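User: Please predict the structure of the protein below. I'd like the answer in structure-token form so I can feed it into my own downstream comparison script.

Assistant: Understood. Taking the following sequence of 444 residues as input:
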Amino acid sequence: MIPAEVPEPVEDEDGDSSAGYLSAKSVALDKDVLNNFCKTRFHPFIHETGRVREFIEGFADDLLEALRSVCDREADLEVEDFVGIGSMFESWRVSKPPTCDLIVPFSPPQPFRFQFQLWCDPATEIPLDLQGCGRIKLIKPGWNGTDCICGSTNLGDDMLCLLHNRNECEKLEEHTSVELLCARNTTYLSKDQIMRWFQISVTKAWGKISHKYDFELAFRNLDFPGALKIRFRSGKTVLLNVTPAVQFEETDAYLISHFPSDTSNSSDIHWQLSLSVYERNLLKYLAKRLPTNSCHIHCLQIVSFLHKKQTALTGRSAFSNYHIKTALLHLLLSKRLAMWQPQNLDHRLRDLLSFLQQSLEEKRLYHVMVGNPRIPVEILVPKRICSAEPINLFRPLVLQRNVYAKMEVHFQEMVRNTSVLVQEYTPHLSNGHVRHEFSSTDEA
């Protein structure tokens, strides 16, 4: 197994390896400015995040309960309790409006079951550009030799199954609505069909409970049916990404229909594996062992903030907050925890930018959870994932040259603008008073 190595940034003597290139190690950062930046930009979110999360959890419970009530309990998919992931549930929110990411697992009705075929299974043939994906096969009694065949055979009026009564046999024949959620001429679950079913179900569910709430709920993006927007009468908004998923066996891993920031997987039957719950648990595990008021969350918040600002300046790219979080987790696992003292914020921020810069140059950024021997055993990552070959998150993007080139330019411009952006969005002391560079209504 290839170890998930951490690239060591190489810096030229003058910090400039070529014309137009700026090494992240040479970015000018002032400790006082950084501390003031974090205090004014991120600290106000601490209390608000708790209130928003509490509201979203209550609303999501209500919406999913209504969704269950509009589904046919005998024939439809069974919707389970949501799982909160992402910045809102990992305490590193950086901007307005607040965005909440929820995974909503579903399971097939009895007597159907799911069978999983992961990219890392020896007998599974999945293209290299779909590493980290899996197929979900719908298994019906009678489709293999271990189940009773009464669900797939017409017994006739004068014959009875010795294991099931006639009503049970009829149920096996009636569950065709679940089979329609498979891709055409296959037994593999279709992402498109599931997303269509989910959007219709959410619309019906909201129709049942909308009278209870004093706000509007709308779909933000029809390509992603769970991308919702809540707008209150005051004009304030909350963004909600509700993503349908299938729990992988009895673990905290999920096969999900899509990542909101990723459009590289266009296959209808290959679902992406999400290990977000394990990543959240790893952050919690490390936080308990890091120095008091460690600077790791501020590093993540600052780079995410810079990425959002650069996107506003030069447009969207394939670079994402997930890449930033992955890089941070690699650094947390590779550096001595004592190095994350709060007074080392400037050094660790340069390390994070340098790690990402080097990863982009080398065209490799490994998934932190897959095949990484540095993951503590306490995180309980499934053995099949621990023993798999490391996954290069950049590989699908490298195959799209224009997409990858734009991502590299985006990041290089972000590095170049780092000092300016931090200064611009940091309140300055003027005659002993704090002067803000933006109004209180700024939703940066």
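That's the full token string. Residues 45-70 form the longest helix (26 residues).
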